Amino acid sequence: MRKRILQEMGTQPKSIQEIARALNIPFTRLYYHIHLLEKHGLVELVETRQGAGVIEEKFYQVSAYLFLVDRALMTIG
User: Fold this and answer.
1) What does the pLDDT read at residue 77?
2) Angstrom distance (rounded) from CA 63 to CA 56
3) Strand partners, 14
4) Is residue 19 within 8 Å of 30, Cβ to Cβ?
């Protein structure tokens, strides 16, 4: 799921709602994944827009366009 989120973000900042529509999944399923990606520095919050009433729409973008993962992290045990 997180890989699909990163791929969908591409080069433009996107809101959780935009990503959810593109991936055809409920936006409520993305909050957990976006939070983890942000916590580990893979995405960053770049803009917050005020919506109707008290609703804020947050836009995220990837932190880098290339991520190198150590093979040791991909092994079991």
Assistant:
1) 62
2) 22
3) 60
4) yes
**Joined tokens for residue 65:** 């366009």
Q: How far apart are CA 38 and CA 66, in angstroms?
A: 16
What distance separates the 2 farthest-apart alpha carbons in the chain?
A: 50
Give CA–CA dist 37/6, Å, rounded: 9
Residues 1-39: tens digit of each pLDDT: 888 998 898 888 999 999 999 999 998 899 999 999 999
From the list 50, 20, 46, 24, the residue with the least C-alpha distance to 32 is: 20
d(CA 63, CA 13): 10
**Tokens 């996107």 sit at which residue?**
14
